[in-house]
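Progress against Task 2.4 (sequence-to-structure conversion) is shown through the following example record, which the project officer requested during the mid-term review.
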Amino acid sequence: MDSFTLFPQLPPEIRLRIWDLTLPSSRLIPIRCGYDPSPSSTSVGPGCFSPASIPPSLQACIESRQHALSTRYTHSLSMARSPARVLLDHESDVLYFPPKEGYMAASAEFHTFLSLCNQTDLARLRRIALHESGLAVGLTVECLARIRDRMPAIEQIIFVCASHEDGGDDDAPARLRAQIHTAMSDLAASSGGKWTPPIWTIVAEP
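Structure tokens generated for the chain above:
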């Protein structure tokens, strides 16, 4: 932009096409529930927030921001009395629920999200990534059933298998895969053919 000063004089359709090309195809959006600790936060109550960076085109100028908000992004994931704070492309972005320090803390946070987040926002989600610590011990079927019920449009679930610093437990991914496969099969069978499991994969924690 600094070296091409004639950009504002381009036809609008060309400028908008250029702004389209600056948008990321997909983003990984870590999700937290509670009070946003970031210094720039103006929130006064708990809710959903994310440390994910905002696409540059949303900050470049008024035209680029308005175009991105009208074609791709919207503020989403309002919770209870808290307004929507997360800029999200429901079609392509992946919501990630990372691990959290404390016994069952990640599972409790994920279930809080499912229980309190605006149902209209949840119903628009297509892709999520869930750290295995977010699955309550022994309650995988129940957890997936809640995802099915609260996120009816979900198309893909990525399960993140915890890493082991000591190099042990090489069978952990296989056990998680068997656990998820059994739970998905049980849910599909109990639905009488009315529910088809979403595409799911298991990836190792970075």
